[in-house]
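User: I've been trying to design a sequence by hand for this structure and keep getting stuck. Would you show me what you'd pick, starting by listing the structure so we're on the same page?

Assistant: Good idea, let's start from the same input. This is the structure you sent:
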């Protein structure tokens, strides 16, 4: 541009050399000013872009901070609720154990009283299984299956005393029998049918603790819960039925327990 202006001035022949130099300098200054203005505009545009980007990042960080605070609050609340639930479960387990201990102590005292009265009245002892054992020399040495079938037949026919003696004999003579857990469960059923619910609870507990992998555990938990209900102890009944639904959720007994829990 400078050369074009100078050329035009010289061509017209109306300016001195000094005027040409001055004009040349002025043109140079204008060009520099134009370049600077363009540079400043570019810088200003870049600064605006960076400011906008920074603002967006700041908004995002604030939102993330809020989300983190909310999540932290929920985690603290969940942790608190879990601790409370664990404490409640531990307290319920302790209460249930104390209840079972009291029932066992009561049953033991009743047993001692019966033995004492039998001796006092000079009656033949009625200890379960004693009659069978006393006749052991005269009886045929039955197999575990024969003993179980005979006891179950007596149970089905309503001869509960004979059934109980047979199941007791099976457990004592063949403690590792495949039918031992079933025999123990039927003993609990015999007490339940006789409305001796405390004894039934103890016999069902023997199934739960002695045969944890057996097929009668869900049924024992269900009937144990029903026995507590019959005693008016809804707290332990609810605890036992919840344990059943939690540990054996796919069992038929769990479905029955869930329906029963809805009525509490």
């Amino acid at each position: 541009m400078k050369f074009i202006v100078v050329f035009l001035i010289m061509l017209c022949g109306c300016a001195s050399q000094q005027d040409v130099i001055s004009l040349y300098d002025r043109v140079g200054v204008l060009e520099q000013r134009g370049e600077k203005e363009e540079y400043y505009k570019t810088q200003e545009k870049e600064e605006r872009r960076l400011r906008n980007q920074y603002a967006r990042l700041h908004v995002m960080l604030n939102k993330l901070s809020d989300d983190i605070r909310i999540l932290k609050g929920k985690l603290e609340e969940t942790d608190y609720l879990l601790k409370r639930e664990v404490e409640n479960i531990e307290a319920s387990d302790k209460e249930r154990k104390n209840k079972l201990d009291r029932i066992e102590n009561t049953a033991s005292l009743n047993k001692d009283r019966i033995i004492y009265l039998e001796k006092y009245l000079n009656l033949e002892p009625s200890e379960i299984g004693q009659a069978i054992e006393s006749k052991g020399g005269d009886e045929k040495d039955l197999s575990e299956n024969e003993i179980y079938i005979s006891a179950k037949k007596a149970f089905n026919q309503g001869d509960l005393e004979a059934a109980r003696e047979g199941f007791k004999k099976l457990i004592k003579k063949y403690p590792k029998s495949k039918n031992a857990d079933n025999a123990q469960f039927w003993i609990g059923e015999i007490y339940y049918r006789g409305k001796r619910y405390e004894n039934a609870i103890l016999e069902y507990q023997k199934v739960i603790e002695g045969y944890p992998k057996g097929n009668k555990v869900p049924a024992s938990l269900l009937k144990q819960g029903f026995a507590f209900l019959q005693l008016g102890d809804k707290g332990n009944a609810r605890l036992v039925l919840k344990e059943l639904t939690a540990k054996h959720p796919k069992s038929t007994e769990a479905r029955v327990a869930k329906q029963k829990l809805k009525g509490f």
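That's my pick for every position. To get oriented when you compare it with your attempt: The mean pLDDT is 78. Residues 119-262 form a domain with the Serine Threonine Protein Phosphatase 5, Tetratricopeptide repeat fold (CATH 1.25.40.10).
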